[in-house]
Design brief:
The protein is built from 11 helices and 11 strands. By secondary structure, the protein is an alpha/beta fold. The termini are far apart. The chain binds adenosine-5'-triphosphate. Adenosine-5'-triphosphate (ATP) binds next to helix 4.
Length: 319
């Protein structure tokens, strides 16, 4: 094996650049030629390649997003597109591919692996929605952003005696709401994995008011329900004015935190080592502080579960 490629795919996530940098520099250290593929599988199908040298990845550790850009490709979803992609890689002398992305990108990596391209998956998504790994690259930066936003909203909440519903990302995974809620002291955390009870929420609001609390912050995960309707219903049921704040794509951007830089760096470097050792068709994850790998199909099949201990802790500490 001489030439390896790297691409980023699906939603961008802070820390992807740290992973790209580690792939490139570890790759060169191990004697590989490293090629970047712009715009994920879409760019692969257009042969949008760029040679990556040590200097190509200078000064990117601190940058959010991905220098290789990212995209979603319809053509690649089809068998014919996957076969064409494998042929393009082979025609360019590329033996192996490192894919940084979420579960959809991993499925694509598995297809390419079955077509004879050695692939390794690195989990890059702010949602933390892959059950086989404790953390995905970008998650910690996203919760840091939510934490900062909530602390600003709390000033207004306290000053006006007004509730805030803060809608956060995560699709069907409540981790952003849960972790950000815990570290910002949100009064309620509402996640897709646990049914919510409007009456119980109103009781916490009332109990807080009786204790003289002037602020009330509710973190609502986007996968639960329509945030506008939820806020309206909350206001009507509780009789307390509420405002909705949608943080939206701000959660995707920004300079990666120390944790995400470290995670991207460790996973990127290890992906190269795994390829060198002849491993392929696997996804890298982290359990505790230890990197591990699993067959891509097995990794995707691990159900993502909410940490119920943390969920109960958030509830206890907020009262
Ligand atoms: P995120 O979690 O940030 O959305 P993702 O990797 O899950 O990231 P997707 O849009 O699901 O994002 O997938 C990215 C790309 O991977 C798709 O545009 C498509 O080209 C490819 N892909 C997705 N699902 C499959 C699949 N089942 N088979 C082959 N390729 C796939």
């Amino acid at each position: 094996m001489k030439k390896i490629a790297v691409l980023t795919s699906g939603g961008d996530a802070p820390g992807m650049n740290a992973a790209i940098r580690a792939v490139v520099r570890m790759g060169i250290h191990e004697g590989f030629e490293v090629v970047g593929i712009n715009r994920g599988y879409e760019g692969l199908l257009e042969s949008d390649f760029v040679a990556l040298k040590r200097s190509s990845v200078s000064d990117i550790l601190q940058r959010g997003g991905t220098i290789l850009k990212t995209a979603r490709s319809k053509e690649f979803l089809e068998q014919a597109g996957q076969e064409r992609a494998a042929q393009i890689l082979q025609a360019n002398g590329i033996d192996a591919l490192i894919v940084i992305g979420g579960d959809g990108s991993f499925k694509g990596a598995k297809r390419l692996n079955d077509l004879g391209i050695a692939t390794i998956g690195i989990p890059g998504t702010i949602d933390n929605d892959l059950g086989y790994t404790d953390y995905t690259i970008g998650f910690y930066t996203a919760i840091e952003t939510v934490m900062e936003a909530v602390s600003k909203l709390r000033d207004t909440s306290s000053s006006h005696g007004r509730m805030f519903v803060v809608e956060v990302m995560g699709r069907n995974c409540g981790d952003i709401a849960l972790y950000a809620g815990l570290i910002s002291g949100a009064e309620n955390v509402i996640v897709p994995e646990v049914d919510y009870d409007m009456q119980a929420i109103c009781h916490t609001i009332q109990a807080g008011q009786e204790k003289g609390k002037s602020h009330h912050i509710i973190l609502l995960s986007e996968g639960v329900t329509d945030a506008n309707e939820f806020t309206k219903e909350l206001e009507e049921t509780s009789g307390t004015p509420a405002r909705l704040a949608v943080i939206g794509h701000l959660q995707r951007g920004g300079s990666p935190t120390a944790f995400d830089r470290l995670l991207g760096t460790r996973m990127g470097a290890w992906a190269v080592e795994l390829l060198k050792d002849g491993k392929s068709g696997v996804a890298i994850g982290i359990r505790g502080n230890t990197l591990h790998y699993m067959e891509i199909d097995d990794a995707i099949a691990v159900r993502d579960r909410l940490n119920m201990d943390l969920y109960e802790l958030a509830d206890i500490l907020a009262q």
